[in-house]
Write a structure and sequence with these properties.
The structure holds two protein chains of two kinds.
Chain A lengths: L1 E4 L7 H14 L12 H8 L3 H13 L3 E4 L3 E4 L10 H20 L4 H27 L1
Antiparallel strand pairs in A: 2-3
Helix pairs in contact in A: 1-3, 2-3
Chain B lengths: L1 H25 L18 H29 L3 H34 L9 E4 L11 H20 L6 E6 L5 E6 L2 H27 L10 H39 L5 H28 L33 E2 L3 E2 L8 E3 L6 E3 L4 H27 L1
Antiparallel strand pairs in B: 2-3, 4-5, 6-7
Helix pairs in contact in B: 1-2, 1-3, 2-3, 4-5, 4-6, 5-6, 6-7
Classes of the chains: A mainly alpha, B mainly alpha.
Chain lengths: 138, 380
């Protein structure tokens, strides 16, 4: 999976890398058990510090989205089909969602627009996931 | 000696100068004279005028250098042989640095990257491992096997001493006594060179894909694959030419057909040059073609990022990592090898441990090549 990160952004590179991989899992580009390139390979491919990539992978590991072992490297550990989230997940995520929605409300986005954007995004994930499943089985 | 000095100096100055003249056409449009510019600025008039300035300075200095070399060859041929390459490289560097500083100034004054969105792009899933074509290695190997077989058959009948080195006019000037080493020196060397080239063609696979501005990630990937393929197959072709040339020379030595040594040597050099020129042309074409062919494998995953709209972002401005537009020093970049800024092939990253080791090894080899003969001569 090709990923683009913005070196001029306020968002740190490791966070951007983590975010793109999280999105890749949601839209099925990265299925469960799909291998990820090693930290060093990714750092060389981008031309960025190894520690930056390592930090991004650490975040993903802490969230249970990837697992790393010596033999097979890093692979995607869970995805939409891996069952319900951990009990602690919902509370923390709801907190962030609140902030994110508040940002849009503060900027004057109408509620209908916000709801539309949310369901569009979810639909896109679901559609791509379906396409990727078909692509993988054909 | 004077004639040789003149031919050597003229050939060196003309070939290196000629490469310098065509080089601007061989690099991506967003890297004119090794300065990174946004895709929207590639048609700025200052760029064309800087390239013209670069070519003019280069042509004038080549012509002056040719006159100086010819004049210097009469009183001091050996000085000419040393001066010609050094002066060529110095003048090449001079025209490059002065010309590119014009683009850099215009870029800084006009704040060209202001408001341009820049992205780094790369694969986070393991890409298929690059495998150099094995067909050339097989052909070169077959040629060498035949040559060794011929050598083994002819070895018992070889004279006690035979020539192993020839002067520039094609007459033998060094004779060796018969031994496995003196008889099989050429095919042994050929084998080492062929294996070395094959090793190098593997190294091509570890070099990273680096996106040039305004290429889509798929294009960058396709371009990198094309460049790797061209380089690896050209190395293979070179090894076949080496095997044929060294083989022909060895067989000419064993059979006493000394008249064939010179044609075989010249033929090999001409073929080597032809392969190198073809490689440079193919390499540049795959690098500068506006739309590299994008081959998306069937059933490849679709992601939001791959399906992004055509409004592409540029690769970030990385001029600060290129000292003098030639030497790459980026401590954050773990890559040992990176694509060259202004030229064909790859260069080392002096900011990485691997690049540092490589760089020091190169300096040691060059210094040793100059100093050791001087010490040996003074000891004798």
């Amino acid at each position: 999976m090709q990923v683009e990160i913005d070196p001029a952004s306020e968002v740190p590179l490791y966070q951007q890398l983590r975010d793109r991989i999280v999105e890749g899992i949601a839209d099925g580009t990265l299925a469960t058990d799909a291998p990820l390139a090693s930290v060093r390979q990714v750092a060389i491919a981008f031309g960025i510090n190894v520690a930056t990539v390592s930090k991004g992978y650490d975040l993903l590991r802490a969230e249970g989205l990837i697992r790393t072992n010596r033999k097979s490297g890093s692979v995607v550990a869970r995805g939409p089909e891996s069952g319900p989230p951990a009990p602690t997940f919902a509370g923390e995520w709801m907190g962030r969602l609140r902030t994110l929605l508040a940002e849009a409300v503060d900027q004057g986005m109408p509620d209908a627009g916000i709801r539309g954007a949310v369901s569009d995004t979810l639909d896109t994930f679901a559609r791509r996931r379906e396409q990727n499943r078909k692509g993988a089985s054909s | 000696m004077t004639a040789f000095a003149i031919v050597f100096a003229v050939a060196f100055v003309v070939v290196i100068g000629g490469i310098g003249l065509v080089m601007p056409a061989l690099v991506p449009k967003t890297l004119p004279l090794g300065v990174s510019v946004p895709a929207a600025r590639v048609d700025e008039p200052v760029i064309a005028s800087a390239v013209r300035w670069y070519r003019t300075v280069l042509v004038v200095s080549i012509l002056i250098l040719l006159v100086v070399c010819v004049a210097l060859a009469f009183p001091s041929p050996s000085a000419t042989i040393i001066v010609a390459p050094l002066a060529t490289l110095a003048l090449f560097g001079l025209s490059y640095v002065t010309a590119r500083s014009r683009i850099r100034r215009a870029k800084a004054d006009g704040d060209w990257y202001q408001g341009v969105s820049t992205r780094l792009a790369a694969d986070v899933t393991p890409s298929a491992r690059f495998r150099p074509p094995v067909v050339w290695l097989a052909i070169a190997g077959a040629v060498l096997v035949v040559v060794f077989a011929v050598g083994v058959a002819l070895y018992p009948g070889l004279p006690h001493t035979f020539p192993t080195h020839w002067g520039a006019d094609g007459t033998p000037n060094v004779y060796s006594t018969k031994s496995v080493w003196s008889a099989f020196g050429l095919p042994f060397t050929g084998t080492i060179v062929v294996l070395g080239f094959y090793g190098l063609s593997w190294l091509v696979g570890v070099t990273p894909v680096r996106r040039t501005a305004s290429d889509s990630p798929d294009q960058a990937r396709a371009r990198a694959a094309a460049v790797r393929h061209v380089t690896a197959s050209s190395l293979g072709q070179l090894s076949v030419v080496i095997a044929l040339g060294f083989g022909a020379m060895a067989i000419a030595t064993w059979t006493g057909a000394y008249a064939w040594i010179m044609p075989a040597t010249i033929g090999m050099l001409v073929l080597l040059l032809a392969v190198v020129v073809a490689m440079v042309v193919r390499y540049a074409r795959s690098l500068t073609r506006p739309d590299a062919p994008v081959v998306v494998p069937a059933g490849a995953p679709v992601s939001a990022q791959d399906a992004a709209p055509a409004g592409r972002s540029d690769a970030p401005d990385d001029d600060r990592y290129w000292k003098g537009g030639m030497i790459y020093v980026n401590r954050n970049d773990p890559a040992t090898f990176v694509p060259k800024r202004f030229g064909v092939g790859w260069t080392i990253n002096l900011g990485s441990p691997g690049g540092m080791v490589f760089g020091i090894a190169m300096v040691v080899i060059v210094v040793a090549a100059i100093v050791v003969p001087i010490i040996v001569r003074s000891l004798n």
